[in-house]
Amino acid sequence: MFALVDCNNFYASCERVFRPDLIRKPVVVLSNNDGCVIARSNEAKAIGIPMGAPAFEYEMLLKKYNVHVFSANFALYGDMSQRVMSILSEYAPDMEIYSIDEAFLKLDNFEKFDLQSYGQEIQRRVVKWTGIPVSVGIAPTKALAKAANRIAKKFPEKTESVYLINSDDKRIKALKWLKIEDVWGIGRQHGKRLIAKSVNTAYDFTQLDDAWVKKNMSIMGLRLKHDLQGVPVLDLEVPQPKKNIATTRSFEKNYTEFEQIKERVTTFAVSCAEKLRHQHSCCNTMMVFIHTNGHRKDLTQYSRNIVVKLPFPTNSSIELAKFATQALEKIFRNGYCYKKAGVIVMDFTPEDQKQIAIFENSNPKHIPLMQAVDRINDSFGQQKIKLASQDLHKVWKMKQEKLSQRYTTDINEIISIHV
DNA sequence: TCTGGGGTCCTAGGACCC
DNA sequence: TCTGGGGTCCTAGGACCC
After folding, report:
1. Which positions 141-170 on chain A have a beta carbon less than 7 angstroms from any atom of strand B?
2. CA–C1' A124–B9 (A)
3. Which residues put CB within 7 Å of chain C, the nucleic strand?
4. CB A105 within 8 A of CB A91
5. pLDDT of the residue at A383
6. Are the CB atoms for A15 and A22 separated by under 8 Å?
7. Is the dihedral of CA A189, A195, A199, A203 positive or negative?
């Protein structure tokens, strides 16, 4: 059996832990630059604020219903996530952290356990120890655990936030209830195609012909079908080193000058280099892109990317920043209002298995230098040491007007209680 | 004026090899 | 008139997840 434990409205719930006055009130969390709604409390959902809603378009509605708005505080969410995961890890020998707010537990050899009450114990402990409400779905396969979780979330009173699928009757009942477009692995495109074919529920999907599913939805669709039929084909996944690493950002305002974008792209390359060193990889290829604001139909649009094969594998901030700047020079054009840029590194080799090139190689002096930089930035805070080509004055270049404190990760921002 | 960021996997088709 | 068979590698595009 698998359990899927999923935090309810995670980012909004994190904010509420430190603002208990907001419990049962509408809360939303915005994306970087305070752009879109990326998390909503149930109350905010009820008002009719959709996922991804541009904040400026919903300003009236947010005001009218007195919705509490927060800028994204990823330092807080990341730390709260670790706390939740460390509690969950106590409940099963094997666990897969599936995303920042959900984890699969593998409940093998739990035959003697009453899984319903086991789920409830997990649910109660997480909320008691962290303040984060969770829902638990338990079923014989991962896809069914996802479905069970949806039921637990949809009917919190009736299920006490835990739903167990442990018979074929319950499996079929759940699948007949679950709309096809809400099935894990069925996105917008497949959802549309299936509805056109009169496949309206997860159950209908399990009745389809294997060959049709494989042909139209690839092997992934077929695996999903079997998993929903109760034949486990999806197992826990072990964390793998990343195959691509990206740092991309929208700008707070439009940039028109090369120097402004160069500073951003340098910073993104340095960030990619840090992430590469963190997983002990070097990259052989880099992509740099820039583009104007696609939503602004009144401005001339420009969008380009360039893929650069590096002369040698590296994870040095200095070298990657240099390559990124050279790439940017090739694609930058004057006369446009740029809104977004990014650096993506790919094609990795392990740090300790670098192929030596004939003519040019990564500067070996950078290895101890980067180690020193990482150590200093780890202990004294991010970006204490930067390249001169980065902005040396500003650390944060985003609009974040409603940022809450980093209650759990910065001693200066710890919660204070007034008596 | 204002519209996020970061990932994964699969498949078909083209280019190439012998 | 008639033009083989069996591979690999790479890339772009499409789909999905949170």
Report:
1. none
2. 36
3. A 98-102, 146, 183-191
4. yes
5. 85
6. yes
7. positive
Contact A213, A221 (CB under 8 A): yes
How long is the CA A51 to C1' C18 vector, in angstroms? 13
Residue found under tokens 């599913």: A213
Instruction: Give the nearest nucleotide to A222, CA to C1'.
Output: B10
Q: What is the largest CA-CA distance in chain A?
A: 70
Answer yes or no: are the C-beta atoms of A227 and A143 closer than 8 Å: yes
Q: Provide φ and ψ at A163, rounded to 5°.
A: -130, 135
Q: Which nucleotide is closest to the Cα of A98 by its C1'?
A: C18
Task: Name the one residue in this structure whose structure tokens are 């899984």.
Answer: A115
Q: Cα(A227)–Cα(A211) distance, rounded to whole angstroms?
A: 16
Handedness of CA A136, A137, A138, A142 (dihedral sign): negative
Q: Which residue is nearest to nucleotide B5 (CA to C1')?
A: A248
In what helix (H) or strand (E) does residue A228 lie, and over which residues does it extend? helix A210-228
- Nucleotides on strand B lying under 7 Å from protein C-beta: 1-11
Distance of CA A98 to the CA centre of its chain: 10
Q: At what angle do helices A258-278 and A366-380 cross, to 10 degrees?
A: 90
Low-confidence ranges of chain A (pLDDT < 50): none
pLDDT at residue A324, rounded to an integer: 96
Distance in angstroms (rounded) separating the CA atoms of residues A316 and A282: 8
Give the nearest nucleotide to A102, CA to C1': C18
CA separation, residue A177 to residues A6, A174, A201, A214, A291 (Å): 20, 5, 7, 24, 43
CA-nearest of A16, A18, A36 to A26 is: A16
Whether the predicted model's global pTM rises above the 0.85 cut: yes
Q: Give, as ranges, the nucleotides of chain C with any atom within 7 Å of a protein CB.
A: 14-18
**φ and ψ at residue A22, rounded to 5 degrees:** -95, 0
Helix (H), strand (E) at residue A258: helix A258-278
- Cα angle A213-A214-A219, degrees, rounded to a multiple of 5: 125
* Closest to A362 (Cα-Cα) out of A241, A305, A277: A277
pLDDT of residue A418: 86
The separation, in Å, between residue A240 CA and nucleotide C12 C1' comes to: 25
Q: Give the span between the Cα atoms of A13 and A22, in whole angstroms.
A: 10
Q: Considering all nucleic acid strands, name the nucleotide whose C1' atom is nearest to the C-alpha of residue A307.
A: C11
> Are residues A140 and A167 in contact, defined by beta-carbon separation less than 8 angstroms?
no
Instruction: Say how far apart CA A405 and CA A415 lie, in whole Å.
Output: 8
Give residue A356's pLDDT.
73
